[in-house]
Design brief:
It is built from 13 helices and 15 strands. The chain has about 475 residues and is of the alpha/beta class. Among the domains are: about 230 residues, TIM Barrel, CATH 3.20.20; about 70 residues, no CATH class. The chain is elongated and about 80 Å long. It starts with a helix and ends in a 15-residue tail after the last strand.
Length: about 475
């Protein structure tokens, strides 16, 4: 009887979870076709249906692909390529003809829900940026002519390189030269048409380039101490959230925080060259699997916790004709023979058997932010000295924060923060003052770290400083300097 009761409770609990997950975000895939061994479009449509994938984004308007998706119920995003922006910008007749041939001819049997006008236009070497806004307006007017403007939205995928600042997230801003000619008119257009900004975000690139300071756990949504952002009072537990919130912050700075956001590309390669740090089967499965779980459970981001994001994974297949590093040919979720590269969920139902992690959305900030890092130790945990801090123990319950013997750049960053935004009392370490000697970076950083730590009430996490600090329970010894124990 007890076993039956427990089983019934478990079923009810899981049913409740499924109901709550129904309010989550949505997962789609990018269907690239730069490969010589890919299956036919009709086989691909069957694959998408069999996996429960109900959104797909393509990079053109190939008739075979659009016909194969007819009647499937799969929502489709098509693309007006960069090379057609000039014509669409200069000739409204071209825009009307393009919509007639590539949208009207297939809709509504093929459920085209949006059009990506160009792709990462700002980094296009052919310099098509100047044509983007007028092309979007002409394409939209063509939709109006065919009475499709209320059901098909327009946007343009933006790479994170369009940001002038992306770290910390609260300082997110767009490149100044793009604001007046492009972003403001585009945001006005998106607002007027009820559309959204498309963003391509790849934490892999940030991790690959900065693996010495960015934790792998932080990049893959695994457990980690988090990275605090003193600018917005939030703590970030994964790099994806931090990147997306940097875009939200940049939009907010221009007073367009009412416009939604869709992640039009994100992914992680399952293989790479020797110098492509982090490209592996295990990491790709962890990133995509944990991201899908996060999106389907409606977690949002720290800055917008209620935002149910739509995210398009890159990509459906490994594409063997792509040029560049090996990773470019190994982003696929499936091999060309339609077998999974690794096993991850695509639907709420699939989550029952998925043992991925789900990092928290946010928590209050209690420690300074000095660089985009998560975790001080090799496993991403906060590292302290071997003597545990015992509140009320060791005779007095006192503790101090001191600097580790790490590279000078990290110590200098921590020292600058503590004595600057952190508000530490750094007067005693100025030349001629009581704690100037010994005149070493580690000694000065230790004093500043401790001043901040005590100012914060010795709060958990206040002695972190990008993993360059740890807590001790014996008074620090740096010459004749006495470290404060409270304010």
């Amino acid at each position: 009887m007890a076993t039956l009761l427990i089983s019934s409770i478990s079923i009810l609990l899981f049913a409740a979870i499924l109901i709550s997950l129904a309010d989550g975000g949505s997962i789609g895939v990018n269907y690239g076709r730069i490969g010589g061994d890919l299956p036919s479009a009709f086989k691909v449509a069957k694959l998408l249906k069999s996996q429960g994938i109900n959104r797909v984004k393509v990079y053109d308007t190939d008739p075979a692909v659009l016909r194969s998706l007819s009647g499937t119920g799969i929502k489709v995003t098509v693309n007006l390529p960069n090379e057609l922006l000039y014509a669409a910008s200069k000739k409204p007749s071209f825009a009307r003809g393009w919509i007639r041939r590539n949208v009207v001819a297939y809709y509504p049997h093929t459920q085209i829900e949006s059009i990506a006008v160009g792709n990462e236009v700002f980094v296009d070497p052919k310099n098509t940026t100047a044509f983007l806004i007028s092309a979007m307006k002409n394409i939209h007017q063509a939709l109006v002519n065919y009475k499709l403007d209320s059901v098909i939205k327009l946007s343009s995928p933006v790479a994170l390189s369009a940001l002038q600042n992306s770290y910390p997230s609260s300082a997110g801003s767009f490149r100044p030269e793009l604001i007046e000619p492009v972003f403001k008119p585009m945001f006005e257009f998106l607002r007027e048409t009820g559309s959204y900004l498309m963003v391509n975000a790849y934490p892999f690139f940030a991790y690959e380039s900065n693996s010495d300071v960015i934790s792998l756990d932080y990049s893959l949504f695994r457990q980690n101490p988090g990275v605090p952002d003193a600018g917005n009072g939030l703590r970030y537990f994964n790099l994806f959230d931090a990147q997306i919130d940097a875009v939200f912050a940049a939009m907010s700075a221009l007073k367009y925080d009412d416009i939604p956001l869709v992640v039009s590309e994100t992914g992680w390669p399952s293989k790479g060259d020797d110098n492509e740090i982090g490209a592996s089967l295990e990491n790709a499965a962890a990133y995509n699997g944990n991201l899908i779980k996060r999106i389907l459970t409606g977690a949002g981001t720290p800055l917008r916790p209620k935002a149910n994001l739509t995210v398009f994974l890159f990509a459906l297949f490994n594409e063997n004709k792509k040029t560049g590093p090996s990773s470019e040919r190994n982003y696929g979720l499936f091999y060309p023979n339609m077998q999974k590269v690794y096993n991850i969920p695509f639907t709420v139902e699939d989550l029952k058997n998925f043992r991925g992690e789900s990092s928290p959305v946010t928590s209050p900030v209690v420690s300074p932010v000095t660089s985009p890092v998560a975790g001080g130790g090799e496993d991403g945990r906060v590292v302290r000295d071997s003597t545990p801090v015992k509140r009320g123990g060791n005779g007095s319950g006192q503790s101090w924060c001191v600097a580790k013997d790490v590279e000078k750049g990290k110590l200098q960053s921590g020292l600058d923060y503590a004595c600057g935004k952190g508000g530490a009392d750094c007067r005693p370490i100025q030349p001629g003052s009581t704690c100037y000697d010994p005149n070493t970076l580690q000694a000065h950083a230790s004093f500043a770290y401790n001043s901040y730590y005590q100012k914060m009430g010795r709060a958990e996490g206040a002695c972190y400083f990008d993993g360059s600090a740890y807590v001790v329970t014996e008074p620090p010894q740096f010459g004749k300097c006495e470290f404060p124990t409270g304010y």
